[in-house]
Each structure stands twice: as C-alpha cells, then as structure tokens.
From TrEMBL:
Record-linked CDD domains: HMG-CoA_reductase_classI
Lipid bilayer topology: Multi-pass membrane protein
Enzyme category, top tier: oxidoreductase
Pathway terms, separated by semicolons: Metabolic intermediate biosynthesis; (R)-mevalonate biosynthesis; (R)-mevalonate from acetyl-CoA: step 3/3
Protein name in the entry: 3-hydroxy-3-methylglutaryl coenzyme A reductase
C-alpha cells in the first residue's frame, strides 16, 4: 500500500520537509505529527508504525532524489556559464589554451583543436571561424566595439547573444530579458542600436469602430488595465449610433531651422525673400527635387533680432516624413546660402518645428495630419451602453475638459485622456512614441441636440503618423497595420494610407473620450480601474478601506 492512496489527506496545504513533516491523522479531531505517529508505533487508522514509517520514508527519498537532481543540474548550468564568461575574460588576456574552453549547450562555444589561440591569432581570423567565447574575448579586449557586432559578424541574432554575454561579464543582469524568437535583421540600422533583447507588450483590440462607413478593429498596445475595455465600450456606442465621420483638414510635416544673419536688416530681407511668391517658387523647386513624394507647401518665417526661424511645411506621402523633410530643407538652405552668403545655419532644427515638445504653434497651425471627427450618440445608447445621461456628459465635458483645462493653462489639452489612446495605437503600429506629445493635442466637444441625443466631436491638429518607415516594417507592427488595412504606401493615392490611420486614431480617441467621460459622469472610474488593474482581493480591500 502506497502513501499516494491517501492523497486526499495531503491536499490540505501541508508540505514535506526533510525529517519534519505533518500527516493529518484524525483521532478524535486531534492532529498528530508524522513523527509522533511513527514513534507511537501505530497510526490513528491502526496501521503499524514501522509500515507507515517505511512508506513515508520511501516517498521522501523519491522526492529528495528529484530535488537533488534538479539542483545539481542548475548548479552545473550556472557553473558552465560562469566558466565560459571567465574563459572569455582570461582569453582576452592571453591566459587560456584553446583546449581548455568550456562547452555551453545551445550557445555552445568550442575551442578549435591545436593549442593556444592568442588574441593576435584570432583577431586576424574571420569571425565565422571563431567561437562565441573568442568573439567575446575580442570585445572584452576592445578589439571589436560592442556596438559594431552586427556589422562585424553579419549575424544580428549572434551579435545580440554575444553583447548580452559581454554585459554579463560587467555584472549586468539580463537573464529575464527576452531575446529569442524575433528577427533582428529589420531592426539593424533602422530601429535600435546595441540591441540586447526586446520588451513584449500586450495588444488588445477595440471595436468594431464604424468610421466613414468602414468597420475597424483597432490594435492597442498598453499595460494600463481598463484602457482597451473602456475604449471598446466607446466604439460600441459610436457604432450602434450609426458610426462616426471624419475630415482631413490639413496634411504637412514641418521642420524649422534656425538661421543667423549679420543684422536685423538682413534678417528682414531673408524673410521678404521667403514670403515673396516668385522667389519662394525657386526654394520650392529645390526642396521638391530631393524626393518623389515630398512637396513643399509653405515656409512660415519669424524673426527675433538677427535670428530667423523658418518653418518648412511639406506633404510627405505615406511616410511620417521627418527624414524626408529634413533632406528637402537642407537642399533649400543651400539655395538660400547662395542668395545670402553671410547667412549661418545654426541648426537644421531650431525648435520651431516643433517636434516632441508642447507648443502652441502645433496647436494653432497644425503639424502632420490635422483631423476632425464627429458622431451623434443616441440618448438610448447613452443610457443603456454608457450608463449615464446626455446632460451629465455635457456638464462633465464642459467643466473638466474646457473650464478645467483653461484653469490649468493647458495648451492643446482640452480632453480627458487622448494621449492614452494615441500612445497605445502608436506602440502597436510602429509609430514614434515620443511624438505622442504633439499628436495628442485634442479638443473634445459635446452638446445636446434638439432631439435629446449627444453630438460630440474631437479635433486633433497635429497627428504624426506614417504607414512606411520607422518601426512600421517590423513583424508585429506590420501585422497591426494590416489589421487596419493601411500597411505600406498607397500606390494609387499616395498619402491616403497614412491619412486613414490618422482618421482612425482620432476616431478611437473619440471613443475613449466618450467612455471615460461617461464613467466620470456615472461615478464608475475608480471601481472600473480597480476591477481591471487590481486583483479581486485588492478590490475588496479598497472597498473596505473606502467604507471606513
């Protein structure tokens, strides 16, 4: 008879420890320790103490053997890893003969046969003939810069592994940072340098969102519980009410170099030159010559003493366009330099663009895509789906988003949480996440119609998105763009894919605004966040605290 036959007795939370364990033996509702039962000679069930002791000892011995084996394997792996890193460091100092190298499993490093491999030798060999440990030794010895591993090895994945090994020799803990199961080739030279792994983010979908007659399931990458669920509710309310419609009001990326002239008079002359339609045409031609898609639309000039700020604005097709417009601006500045030899280009970016910083200029004049979206939400949907009333929504929106933001001196922040939705979509679709600063400029408006329904709109003057370039070509981000039907350039109507993405961003922001303001109007915000951000145990604790 095995002790396993008494498994129900061991499901009450007791754990075995060597020579000290508990066996729940019911005898007049009194528990006896396993050692006491054995020493007494009989168990509460009448079994001989020796037999019970033998069964328990067998169970313990089996478990201890498994634990010992696992511990030994773990110690072996750690020792091998440490030996490999020590070996690389010593090899960098020419101390280790090649036949003393240590094998390392999946990232196995094996020394070539034939004795010592000093740095002078391995540094002359192709990296394809070197083990990972030898390449690491060259990195440690500063023969190969760590940031050049991809170029030197011609293998991005191997470069990541060796760079991680190098950092481990410096005491950096990277074990739990993922680095496998990803294609690093598209990242090289485009998205990131000194790559050691990646951060995985959960992606949820909100929708369907009916926009301009098309339904979209919008991908959102976030670690904020409740965000996707709330936005999804807003999408439902919009779709049930007939959907939203959008308008693209303007489309042009900007770059604002800062120029210095000899005097205020010469600065004024430069401004006149750029303001004159005839001379502007020459600047425009120079700018447009740098790209098949970039088309200069305007140059806005401001003067501060002898310093000139020129804000070049150009259509950039389906690309977000920063590189494109920078290239065109440089060419235009060459023409201006020929006309004004004393002009000094202080910087191709003079913060007059304005990129990745709050600025009234972007709020007033726009940057990237300027989009406005509207929808009418029926009173019944407001009541049944959003659990509030039209009057309450209008009141909260005016008090919070308009008056509250004005009292705070906000620039472009006349909304509840546009940045939440913008950033989540940006991360999911490979946009420049730092551009959420200006892309989140938004004013949310709500009013009650004559029929008692809710009319709402969001206007966002500076959404900066692209469907080519940047991180849009990475596998996961490409998949999310395909989900929206806007992956890559639109060959028939250049720029329309990026414009559609901007419209989707604005419409999803409206869905998020609608749901959050409804939660505030109904007093649901704290409860919903506790439900989606915390465990039920924490929720109960918060409720108990709130009741005190």
């Amino acid at each position: 008879m095995s002790v396993r036959e008494f498994q129900p007795l061991f499901t009450w939370g007791f754990k075995f420890h060597r020579s000290q364990f508990l066996v729940p033996l019911l005898s007049n509702n009194v528990f006896m320790s396993g050692n006491e039962a054995v020493n007494s000679g009989t168990s509460a069930g009448g079994w001989a103490g020796d037999a019970l002791s033998e069964m328990l000892q067998n169970e313990l011995t089996e478990g201890q053997n498994v634990v010992r084996a696992e511990a030994q394997a773990l110690r072996g792996a750690e020792a091998a890893k440490g030996a490999m890193l020590d070996q690389a460091a010593e090899l960098a100092a020419n101390k280790v003969p090649a036949d003393h190298c240590v094998a390392m499993g999946a990232d196995e490093v094996e020394a070539p046969a034939g004795g010592v491999r000093p740095l002078e030798v391995i540094s002359q060999l192709p990296t394809s003939e070197l083990s990972d440990a030898e390449v690491l030794a060259l990195v440690v010895a500063k023969k190969i810069p760590a940031y050049k591993l991809e170029k030197v090895l011609g293998d991005c994945a191997r470069a990541v592994v060796i760079r991680r090994m190098h950092l481990e020799t410096l005491g950096v803990e990277l074990e739990t940072l993922p680095h496998e199961h990803i294609d690093y080739a598209p990242i090289q030279g485009a998205c990131c340098e000194n790559v050691v792994g990646y951060v995985s983010l959960p992606v949820g979908t909100a929708g369907p969102l009916l926009l301009d007659g098309t339904e979209y399931f919008v991908p959102m990458a976030t670690v904020e519980g409740c965000l996707v669920a709330s936005t999804h509710r807003g999408c439902k309310a919009i779709t049930l009410s007939g959907g939203a419609s959008s308008e693209l009001l303007a489309d042009g990326m900007t770059r604002g170099p800062v120029l210095r002239m000899p005097s205020l008079a010469s600065a004024a002359e430069l401004k006149k030159f750029l303001d004159d339609p005839e001379t502007f045409a020459a600047v425009q031609a120079a700018f447009n010559s740098t790209s098949r898609f970039a088309r200069l639309e305007s140059v806005q000039v401001s003067v501060a003493g002898r310093t000139v700020f020129a804000r070049f604005k150009a259509f950039t097709g389906d690309a977000m366009g920063m590189n494109m417009i920078s290239k065109g601006t440089k060419k235009a500045l060459e023409l201006l330099q020929a006309e004004f030899p004393d002009m000094i280009v202080v910087s191709v970016s003079g913060n007059y663009c304005t990129d990745k910083k709050p600025a009234a200029l972007n709020w007033i004049n726009g940057r990237g895509k300027s989009v406005s979206v509207e929808a009418t939400i029926s009173a019944s949907v407001v009541s049944k789906v959003l659990k509030t009333s039209v009057d309450a929504l209008v009141d909260v929106n005016i008090s919070k988003n308009l008056i509250g933001s004005a009292m705070a001196g906000s620039v472009g922040g006349f909304n509840a949480h546009a940045a939440n939705i913008v950033t989540a979509i940006f991360l999911a679709t490979g946009q420049d996440a730092a551009q959420n600063v200006e892309s989140s400029n938004c004013i949310t408006l709500m009013e009650k119609t004559r029929d008692g329904d809710l009319y709402m709109s969001v206007t966002m003057p500076s959404i900066e998105v692209g469907t080519i370039g940047g991180g849009t070509h990475l596998q996961a981000q490409s998949a999310n763009l395909r989900m929206l039907g806007v992956k890559g350039p639109n060959r028939d109507v250049p720029g329309s894919n990026a414009a559609t993405l901007a419209r989707i961003v604005a419409a999803t922001v409206m869905a998020g605004e609608l749901s959050l303001i409804s939660a505030l109007a109904a007093g649901q915000l704290v409860q919903s966040h506790m439900q989606h951000n915390r465990s039920s145990q924490n929720l109960a604790g918060a409720a108990a605290t709130a009741s005190n």
